[in-house]
Amino acid sequence: MNGLTVAGVSVGFDGTPVLDGVDLAVAPGEVVVLLGPSGCGKTTLLRAVAGLEPTLAGTISWDGVDLAGVPPHERGFGLMFQDHALFPHRDVAGNVGFGLRMAGMPEAHRDERVGRVLDLVGLSGFGPRSVATLSGGEAQRVALARSLAPGPRLLMLDEPLGSLDRALRDRLVDELGVLLRRLGQAAIHVTHDHDEAFALADRIAVMADGRIARIGTPAAVWSDPRTVAVARSVGHRNLVSLGADGSCALGRLGSGPGTVLVRGDRLTLGDDALPARVTGVAFRNGRVELAVSVGDIALYLFADRAVVRGDTVGLRIAGDAVVPLADS
Questions:
Q1: Which domains does the chain show, CATH number per domain?
Q2: What is the pLDDT of residue 103?
Q3: pTM
Q4: Beta-carbon neighbour count of residue 96 at 10 Å?
Q5: Nearest-CA neighbor of 233 among 193, 267, 290, 265?
Q6: Which residues of the chain have pLDDT under 50?
Q7: What is the pLDDT of residue 101?
Q8: Quick one: which of 228, 263, 261, 257 has its CA closest to 244?
Q9: What is the DSSP string of 146-198?
Q10: Which residues of 175-191 are buried (b: 16+ CB within 10 A; e: fewer)?
């Protein structure tokens, strides 16, 4: 396969396994997001691909060529961290061009490349600026430009927007997605934020306990997360426990005990439907989100009309709203 192939990779620290037989492929031009909670192994996987962590088993290859023994600086990969680690004694251009200078690129070519990538990230003319004068968003753009300057065949981003406020993060995620696709840049992006993952990814790989628990397009992972852990990681909240006969306050939703997802995007309000009590109302992104209760079950959905806390509403559950989940 062209691009990155990770096959059966395991990593451990002091006898404790951190990655356990991970398989992953990233095609040229594809953006894959590693999503999961802290400690699930996503950063360790990124570092193993970069050559910064030794593997106990498995192979990492590019275009079919095994990278075992290839040092990080010879892999042709770019790496960007949350703490952008800019050099305070260098100006913006000096930071962006540092890797090019280390690689021996002539000064004239280096200056041209630096100017081009600064323009790509929306910082045209920032070359002479001191990094001490940059805002958080500008500093992240400089770090991105530095990672892109050498023309990496794979760009790896480890929580690059995690320190930014929500509004700035959302804006930069959108800009990053446009930029990566305009460049045809293969990328692995690590985050614990499911909104960020869905906004950016061609495919999402949800990690849990050192393994990839689910991988697929954002639509596929959202509609069928398959396990409780994955459902929680991608932002689902309507997880319902069933009794021995598959029943709950919503009715019979399965054939036996277990957990099901009741997709909030497949719930609507309507007359002559299951009575539910409104326990919370929130206005989010131009839509009204309701919290409702049916017996001992709490559910969340977006409403198409105004209601207030304490109202009783009719709850319609679409036929494809209920998705069975495995416990692990």
A1: 4-232 (3.40.50.300), 239-325 (2.40.50.140)
A2: 82
A3: 0.92
A4: 30
A5: 193
A6: none
A7: 86
A8: 257
A9: HHHTT--SEEEEESTTTTS-HHHHHHHHHHHHHHHHHHT--EEEEES-HHHHH
A10: ebbebbeeeebbbbbbb
